[in-house]
Amino acid sequence: MMPSVAFICTANRCRSVIAHAIFQAEAKARSLDVDVYSAGIFDFRDAPPIDDTTRACLTHGTPAPDKSPTWVGELPLDSIK
């Protein structure tokens, strides 16, 4: 089983998205095989990405995930170890 990590915050629109992007970029740079997830405890799946979050990631050379927020109930919690 591949190692995995999940970053969880309130809405999955700022903090966990940036943490996800940074961790994923660093894992790739180090050739580490790891599944990376992020989600919010509240359901904001209908909300668009926040431009400031995307801009902050891009400014620091870490592309932000380009999808809508993920609700924690959508994660494969049994497989995240």
- Helix-strand pattern, N to C? EHEH
Indicate the mean pLDDT.
87
Please list the strands of the largest sheet in the order they lie side by side.
1-2
Give the number of DSSP strands.
Answer: 2
Per DSSP, the total helix count is 2
Low-confidence stretches: none
Oligomer: single chain
What percentage of residues falls in helices of 4 or more residues? Answer: 25-40%
Q: How much of the sequence is in beta strands?
A: 5-15%
Q: Which labels suit this protein?
A:
two-stranded parallel ribbon; 30% helix; alpha+beta; 2 helices
Care to describe what's here?
The protein is an alpha+beta fold and about 80 residues long. The protein is built from 2 helices and 2 strands. It has helices at about 15-30, 50-60, and strands at about 5-10, 35-40. A two-stranded parallel ribbon has the order 1-2. Helix 1 links the parallel strand 1 and strand 2 (about 35-40). Helix 1 (about 15-30) runs parallel beside helix 2 (about 50-60). The chain is flat, with a radius of gyration of 12 Å. The chain starts with a strand and ends in a 22-residue tail after the last helix.
